[in-house]
Amino acid sequence: MPVQITIELPEEVFAALRSSPEVFVKEMRLAAAVKWYEIGMVSQSRGSELAGVSRQEFLDALSRFKVSPFQVTPAELAEELARE
Predict the structure, then answer these.
(1) How far apart, in whole angstroms, are the C-alpha atoms of residue 30 and residue 25?
(2) pLDDT of residue 63
(3) Rounded to an integer, what distance in angstroms lies between the CA atom of residue 61 and that of residue 36?
(4) How far apart, in whole angstroms, are the C-alpha atoms of residue 50 and residue 35?
(5) Residues in the chain with pLDDT < 70?
């Protein structure tokens, strides 16, 4: 069951960001999901669900926010490849 949360913001925020409240909320959800993915709190599928977008749209957003779609470090990847 969805939970609704109310956040009070000054109207000037929307003008400064050149955004409607609806677009702002969508972008805020996406930005939060991308950040949580970046720090390893959520997976790609959970991030797309939190953002309310498809997985492909979430991957596109990761690129737009300059966040790697891979959750392993180069060192972890090298270690994993060395084991094979």
Answers:
(1) 9
(2) 97
(3) 13
(4) 12
(5) none
Give SS3 for 41. coil
Considering the entire predicted model, what is its pTM?
A: 0.80
CA 5, CA 24: separation in Å to the nearest integer?
A: 14
Do residues 26 and 32 touch, judged by C-beta distance below 8 A? no
Residue 83 has a pLDDT of 86
Alpha-carbon separation of residue 10 from 13, 16, 17, 21, 76 (angstroms): 6, 10, 12, 11, 44
- The type of residue at 74 is P
* Extents of the domains making up the chain: 19-83
| The dihedral sign for the CA sequence 46, 50, 51, 54 | positive
Token pair, residue 9, equals 């913001």
Give, in degrees to the nearest 5, the angle at Cα 2 between 65 and 48.
Answer: 25
